[in-house]
């Protein structure tokens, strides 16, 4: 699926509260653990069966990071 569709699906399935196709593209460029990407015409695509667990793990790490930030703020 396209990065735009992947971003929509991440939100639709409740994996993350928000996601943009730009963020998906950024992760594909910078994260060595991002699933394989193929170019189809002008669009980049990846398999949702590989993207879903990737984004679930990514969202879990982000939630842990955010909760640590909130704890740090309340201590000040």
Strand elements, count: 2
User: What's the helical proportion of residues?
Assistant: 55-70%
The neighbouring-strand order within the major sheet is 1-2
Order of helices and strands: HHEEH
Q: In this structure, how is the largest beta sheet organized?
A: 2 strands, antiparallel
Helical/strand content category: mainly alpha
Q: How many helices does DSSP assign?
A: 3
Write a concise synopsis of the structure shown.
With 76 residues, the chain is mainly alpha-helical. The protein has helices at 3-12, 21-30, 48-75; strands at 38-40, 43-45.
Topology:
Layout: H1 3-12, H2 21-30, E1 38-40, E2 43-45, H3 48-75
Antiparallel strand pairs: 1-2
Helix pairs in contact: 1-2
What does this structure look like?
There is one protein chain. With 76 residues, the protein is mainly alpha-helical. 63% of the residues lie in helices and 8% in strands. It contains 3 helices and 2 strands; from the N terminus they run H-H-E-E-H. It has helices spanning 3-12, 21-30, 48-75; strands at 38-40, 43-45. It has a two-stranded antiparallel ribbon with strand order 1-2. A hairpin with a 2-residue loop joins strand 1 and strand 2. Helix 1 (3-12) packs across helix 2 (21-30). The radius of gyration is 14 Å and the shape is elongated. The N and C termini lie far apart (44 Å). The model has no long low-confidence stretch (mean pLDDT 89).
């Amino acid at each position: 699926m396209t990065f735009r569709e992947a971003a929509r699906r991440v939100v639709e399935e409740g994996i993350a509260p928000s996601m943009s196709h730009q963020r998906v593209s950024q992760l594909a460029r910078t994260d060595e653990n991002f699933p394989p990407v193929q170019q189809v015409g002008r669009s980049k695509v990846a398999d949702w069966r590989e993207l879903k667990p990737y984004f679930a793990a990514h969202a879990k790490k982000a939630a842990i990071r955010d909760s640590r930030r909130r704890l740090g703020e309340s201590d000040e």
